[in-house]
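Bench notes, afternoon.
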Amino acid sequence: MNSPLLELSQVSYRYPDGSVGLDGCTLRIARGSRNVLIGANGSGKTTLFQHSNGLLRPQAGVVRYDGKDIDYGRAGLRDLRSKVGMVFQNPDHQLFSASVQEDVSFGPLNLGLDMATVRQRVTAALQAVGMLEHADKAVHNLSFGQKKRVCIAGVLAMEPELLVLDEPMAGLDHAMQKELLAVLDGLHQRGITLLLATHNIDFAYRWAEHIHLMAAGRCTASLNAGELGEHAAALAAVGLPLPEVIKLHRGLVERDILPPGPPPRSAANLLALFNGAIA
């Protein structure tokens, strides 16, 4: 079995005010996978993310990247943050340069790369998120959704192996969410491992390969998304319902409208099953 790309082993962290961020948390993220971390506010999702690229250091337990314990020295953290990119929930906490191009250039320049390489990375990153035509635009003139995409571009310019996104859909309307998902799907196809936080179990079921449940500073379960219907008790234990599409599918099966079988992952797939059954 391949070692995980990112691993937290019995990690604990308590904030200076005494509140618990993580409490013996264990989590493994497989290379090349799409992952959702889901749980209530205060469950530890953001604290876990801040441990993934060394923004926080565990007070107990170990964080490993690519099989090695994280080195918290300056060189070690610099190397880690070139491989683990984080996109915060609020883009205004991450954008600080005057123009889009300047902001995306900041990370590669900090790595000491030559200008030709920096320009190449910035162009590729902005193209990947559909923002190349806005390269010279002032950051403060961007929409909220555009700012989020520029944040992702800034991280992509570092050429990370793992992209961590804290509530990336927050504050986006339906069209913006669809655009962002297309960006994330494109990144996954390029081999980038994805880990994002959400409160939406329906989205998690539809999009992720692995769903990790968080409560009280711990990962209470790591589940294959396709088998989520078998884990209603684990979901209920962290205050989450089954995805609506699973409940609808079960209702149609109980009424003999659909044959028994694995539930679909999306409403569109359920509708296709339904149309096939009544045709």
